[in-house]
Design brief:
mainly alpha; Rhopdopsin 7-helix transmembrane proteins; three-stranded mixed beta sheet; 10 helices; transmembrane helix; Olfactory_GPCR; G protein-coupled receptor activity; cell membrane; transducer
Length: about 300
C-alpha cells in the first residue's frame, strides 16, 4: 500500500461522532458496550458451534463465518471511534486510513457475498432436500466460503490500490468517524473517474446482483413453504429462514444507503448513524437474532455454559 509518494497529506482528521461534548461520556459508554457485546456474542456463537459436533452442518458453518466477519468488521472501526471519543477528536495516518479502508471494504463485501451463500444453502435445504447432502457437501461449502473471502479481497485490493494513486493536497478533514471510499473521494485533488467507475461495478455486483440472487432464493423458499400442508411444517421451515432474512434486510438497507446512494450535506450526518448500524449494531444484533430464534444454538450454548438459561 505504497501511497505516500502520491500524496501531500500525512494524516487525516476524523470527525467525532457527535460535536456535543456533554454526550461524549454517554456515547463512549454506549459504543464500548456495543463493542464488547459484539465480541462476546459472536465469540460465543463460534465457540458453541465449534464445540458441538451436532452443529457441524453447512448452515452453521456459514454462521461461523458470519460471526467471524462481524468480529473483524467491528474491530476495524470501533476502537478508533472510541479513541476519538476519549481524546475529543482523532487523527489517523495516511497508511492507517488506507489500511482501515482496505479491511472495512473487504469485510463488508465478504458479508454481502456470505449472505447470498447462506440464502442458497437455505434454498437447497428447503426446495431440494433430497439432494442437500450432495449439493452442500463439505468441499462445496469450503469452496463457497473461500470464494467469499477471496473475491471480496480482490475487490478491495483494486479499490485501495486506486485510492492510493490519488493525490490528496488538503483539506485533510474527513467528515466521518472512519475511512471509507465515498468520503475519501471527496478530498481528492486528482480525477476520480476510474474510482467511480469501479465503485459502480462493485455496487452492481456486491449490492444489486447479490441482493437479487438472495431475493430469488427466498422467493423459491417462500413458494415451497406455502406448499407444505401442515402448519407445523410451515412453522419449522419458516423459522430456519426468518432470522437470516431479517439480517439480510437490515444489512442491505444500511450498506445500500452508504455505497449506492452516497450524498453530502445533511446526508453525511445521517451516514454516520447508518455506518454505525452496519459496523456496530448489526454485529451486536446478529448473535442475538440467530441464538434467540434457534433452539439448536441455545442448546449448544447451554452445553458449553451450563449457567446460561
Amino acid at each position: 500500500m505504497a501511497g505516500n509518494n502520491h500524496t501531500d497529506v500525512a494524516e487525516f482528521v476524523l470527525q467525532s461522532f457527535s460535536g456535543d461534548t456533554q454526550l461524549q461520556a454517554l456515547l463512549l459508554t454506549f459504543f464500548l458496550l456495543l463493542y464488547l457485546m459484539a465480541l462476546a456474542g459472536n465469540a460465543l456463537i463460534i465457540m458453541a458451534i465449534s464445540l458441538n459436533p451436532g452443529l457441524h452442518t453447512p448452515m452453521y458453518f456459514f454462521l461461523t463465518n458470519l460471526a467471524l466477519l462481524d468480529i473483524v468488521c467491528t474491530s476495524t472501526v470501533l476502537p478508533k471511534l472510541l479513541e476519538g471519543l476519549v481524546a475529543k477528536g482523532s487523527t489517523i495516518s495516511y497508511r492507517g486510513c488506507m489500511a482501515q479502508l482496505f479491511f472495512l471494504t473487504w469485510f463488508l463485501g465478504a458479508e454481502l457475498l456470505l449472505l447470498t451463500a447462506m440464502a442458497y444453502d437455505r434454498y437447497v435445504a428447503i426446495c431440494c432436500p433430497l439432494h442437500y447432502s450432495t449439493k452442500m457437501s463439505q468441499p462445496v461449502c469450503i469452496l463457497l466460503a473461500g470464494s467469499v473471502w477471496v473475491i471480496s479481497a480482490v475487490s478491495t485490493s483494486v479499490h485501495t490500490g486506486l485510492m492510493a494513486q490519488l493525490h490528496f493536497c488538503g483539506p485533510n478533514q474527513i467528515r466521518h468517524f472512519l475511512c471509507e471510499v465515498p468520503t475519501l473521494l471527496l478530498l481528492s485533488c486528482s480525477s476520480t473517474t476510474l474510482n467511480n467507475i469501479m465503485i459502480v461495478i462493485a455496487d452492481v455486483y456486491f449490492g444489486v446482483v447479490n441482493f437479487l440472487l438472495t431475493m430469488v432464493s427466498y422467493s423459491f423458499i417462500i413458494a415451497s413453504i406455502l406448499r407444505i400442508r401442515s402448519m407445523e411444517g410451515k412453522r419449522r421451515a419458516f423459522s430456519t429462514c426468518s432470522s437470516h432474512l431479517l439480517v439480510v434486510c437490515m444489512y442491505y438497507s444500511t450498506v445500500i444507503y452508504t455505497y449506492i446512494l452516497p450524498g453530502s450535506g445533511s446526508s453525511m450526518e445521517n451516514g454516520k448513524v447508518v455506518a454505525l448500524l452496519y459496523t456496530a449494531v448489526s454485529p451486536t444484533l446478529n448473535p442475538l437474532i440467530y441464538s434467540l430464534r434457534n433452539k439448536d444454538v441455545k442448546v449448544a450454548l447451554r452445553k458449553v455454559f451450563p449457567c446460561i438459561k
